[in-house]
Structures are given as structure tokens and as C-alpha cells.
Design a protein that fits this description.
The chain has 412 residues and is of the alpha+beta class. Helices cover 60% and strands 14% of the residues. The chain is built from ten helices and seven strands. β1 and β2 form a beta hairpin.
């Protein structure tokens, strides 16, 4: 046998559909079987009636009217039974329709979040048909939704009282009960849970926001509210963005003044991640980038100049570290040529072990002698003066001269 409403197969003796609750319509074969059973019941009733009407004595002759009345009794009895059965059938059918109407109304109002009204409608259906499983199943689901709705009312009261901790705990319990429940009836509850979750998060973040002065902490709070909808969440997100931008601006500006441009850029970029539309911070970032570029170009020029200067200094140190300030040469009464010279360390570094090679010429330019002498002291700091001295015997030429041919030294 099949339900003509939802096309579900049932046993032959089933009366109502276990899915939709409607009265099952019998097939033609069942109708024929029912008619045969009714006729059989009718024959039995007729026989019983005839037996009851038979007198214990020998039958007497009946008139035509009595025969007519006797023949109508079974007909009247059959009609009465049929009327009673039909009346019962119609009553049960009407009651089934009322049950289905109550169930349908309950489902509609439950989908709209009116769980108490749905509960009342289903209770009426359950009272009329206590064994109707679809109604009992709907009633159980509505009771769960109604319980969750009452819990949400308690949570809202806690939120109004600023009891965020307990509200958050209860909200998590509701979420846990909703996991795995795919019935559309819970749609209103889910919407309420989402709205309350947003409100709890906004209130929690707002309570911590004013005491935060660290970008990382504020960024964590920002991530909690950035995906939330609603005016309160949007307003809080904008406040966090503005505060992050202000802190980032201060840190970047401080680093810029110290010429620590890389740290300044990092600080500005960190703020722009969360506040990309902050015009003040964006302008500072562009300024830092430009100043960094100029600083690096100037630094490169300084490096090149320093390298050039170092090369020049190295050349001097290598080739002209010692300068002759003056040479004093005198011929004494014994014919000895006494020479004293003052030298200068013109290098940028200390030098040591300076030696001087010299030549003495007579007044005609002829070489009298050559020699080598060490300067004193042996170690000379940059910019210090030092000297050398030597004597050439038996020169006998007042116009003799001394020439420095070559000097050697070592750089420290």
C-alpha cells in the first residue's frame, strides 16, 4: 500500500502514513476485500436475526404486513451499522486533517522563530493523536529550540548587566548544542547566537581597548572584530585602526629623527597594514622613503669621498710620509762638516725606523761623500717632528752642501 501524498510504501493493514500522517487510501483490491468482508458480516447478522426471530413453537401463518416488517429488520440493521461506520470514518478523517493542519501551522510559526506558538499547536496535535510519531518528533525539536531560546533570553539579560564572562560561557554552551543540528527550525536561534557572539566580542574588546598602547595587542583585538558585521563592530574597528595608526606614526617619526630609516619604514608599514587609508601615516611613510633615498645617496657620496681621501692619504703615507722642515749644515774650525735636520711625520698614521740617505757636495758640485743615517726617535706619531744628525770629517769647504737623496720608513 502507498501513501498518495508522499508516495511512501506501508504494510497492507496500515491506516495512517508514518511520514506525513495522512489517512491511507485503500487500493481497489482492498476495497473488494472489504466489501466481501462486509457482506459476510451481513449474512452472519441476518442469520442471527432470523434465528432470534424464529418461534420455539411451530410457525404460525403470518400476514403480509408482518412478513414485510420481518424482511426490513436486517436492512435497517445493515444501514445502521453502515451509518455508524461511515460516521466514525468521517470523524477520524476530520481529526486527522486537523492534526495535519496543527502540525503544518506549528512548522510555519517555528520557522519564524515563534517557538511557544508552535509548541501549543503541536501539543494539540499530540493530544489528538498521541501515537503519531511525526508530531512527537516535531514536538521534541520545538522543545529543544524553545529551551535554547530561553537560554538566549538569559544571555541577553547578562549582557545588559555587563556580565560578559558568564554570558560568554552560556553562549558557548548554546553553540555546542547547535553543532550537528541541521534542522531549518534552528535558523532563528543560529541568527540570534551570531548576533550575540558579535555583541559579546565587541563588548570584550571595548573593555580592553582603552588600556592598550601596543600595536601587536591592538592588532590581535582588530583581528577579532574585523570579520564581524553591524554598526557597533564597524565603529570599534575604526577606533582600533585609528589608534594603531597613531602609535605607528609616533614610532616611525621617532626613528626618522634618529636617521634610523629602516626601522622607521618598518614601523610605518606595520600601521598601514591595519589602517591603509590613514592619510597622515601614508604621507609620513612616503617622506621616510624619500629621506632614506636621499640619505643613502649622500652616504654613498661620503663613502666615495672617504675612499678617495683614504687613497690619497695612503698614497701620502706610502710616498710622502716624511717631510724635511729644514737642514742646518756648518763647517767647524776642525774642518768637520756638522749636519742637523728636522723632519715632520706628514702621514696620517704613526711611522717608525726612519732612515735618510744623503749626499754631500763641494762648492763645485763634486760629491764629497754619501751616507745613511737613522732619525730619532725611532717611533713618531702623526704630525710630530723628529730629527737626524751626522758629521762629515775633513771637508775643508765652507760652501759644501747636503742633499737628501732618499728616505725610508714603516707605517704603524
Amino acid at each position: 500500500m502507498y501513501c498518495h501524498h508522499c508516495v511512501r510504501e506501508h504494510d497492507a493493514d496500515a491506516v495512517y502514513c508514518s511520514r506525513c500522517g495522512r489517512l491511507l487510501e485503500p487500493s481497489q483490491q482492498q476495497l473488494h476485500q472489504g466489501q466481501a468482508a462486509a457482506l459476510e458480516e451481513w449474512d452472519v447478522a441476518k442469520d442471527q436475526a432470523s434465528t432470534a426471530l424464529e418461534p420455539s413453537q411451530l410457525p404460525v401463518r403470518q400476514t403480509g404486513r408482518r412478513k414485510l416488517i420481518t424482511g426490513l429488520i436486517p436492512v435497517v440493521l445493515f444501514i445502521s451499522i453502515a451509518a455508524a461506520l461511515l460516521s466514525y470514518y468521517l470523524y477520524e478523517a476530520r481529526l486527522n486533517n486537523r492534526v495535519l493542519e496543527w502540525q503544518d501551522t506549528a512548522r510555519k510559526v517555528a520557522m519564524a522563530g515563534k517557538y511557544e506558538e508552535a509548541f501549543r499547536e503541536l501539543n494539540k496535535a499530540a493530544d489528538a493523536r498521541p501515537d503519531f510519531k511525526p508530531v512527537q518528533a516535531d514536538l521534541k525539536i520545538v522543545e529543544e529550540a524553545l529551551s535554547l531560546g530561553r537560554t538566549l533570553t538569559e544571555i541577553q539579560q547578562r549582557l545588559d548587566d555587563q556580565d560578559l564572562a558568564e554570558a560568554a560561557v552560556q553562549l558557548e554552551q548554546v553553540k555546542s548544542k547547535l553543532r550537528g543540528r541541521e534542522e531549518p527550525i534552528f535558523g532563528t536561534v543560529r541568527d540570534q547566537v551570531e548576533d550575540m557572539s558579535t555583541k559579546v566580542t565587541v563588548l570584550q574588546v571595548s573593555s580592553e581597548f582603552n588600556s592598550m598602547d601596543n600595536i601587536d595587542d591592538l592588532a590581535s583585538e582588530y583581528n577579532q572584530v574585523k570579520g564581524l558585521s553591524g554598526d557597533e563592530a564597524l565603529e570599534l574597528r575604526l577606533k582600533i585602526e585609528a589608534k594603531i595608526a597613531d602609535i605607528s606614526y609616533g614610532e616611525a617619526e621617532e626613528m626618522r629623527k634618529k636617521k634610523n630609516f629602516s626601522a622607521a619604514i618598518t614601523a610605518a608599514q606595520k600601521g598601514l597594514i591595519y589602517a591603509p587609508d590613514n592619510d597622515k601615516l601614508a604621507k609620513l611613510y612616503d617622506r621616510i622613503v624619500e629621506e632614506k633615498k636621499n640619505f643613502e645617496e649622500a652616504e654613498q657620496q661620503r663613502i666615495e669621498q672617504a675612499m678617495q681621501k683614504a687613497a690619497e692619504e695612503d698614497l701620502i703615507n706610502q710616498t710622502a710620509a716624511v717631510k724635511v722642515k729644514h737642514i742646518d749644515a756648518q763647517l767647524d774650525i776642525f774642518g768637520d762638516f756638522n749636519v742637523t735636520g728636522e723632519l715632520l711625520n706628514a702621514a696620517t698614521r704613526p711611522i717608525y725606523s726612519v732612515s735618510i740617505e744623503y749626499t754631500v757636495h763641494d762648492s763645485k758640485g763634486n760629491v764629497i761623500t754619501t751616507g745613511k743615517v737613522d732619525a730619532t726617535p725611532s717611533y713618531i706619531e702623526a704630525g710630530e717632528t723628529f730629527k737626524f744628525t751626522f758629521v762629515v770629517h775633513h771637508v775643508q769647504d765652507e760652501n759644501a752642501t747636503v742633499a737628501i737623496d732618499h728616505m725610508t720608513w714603516y707605517l704603524d
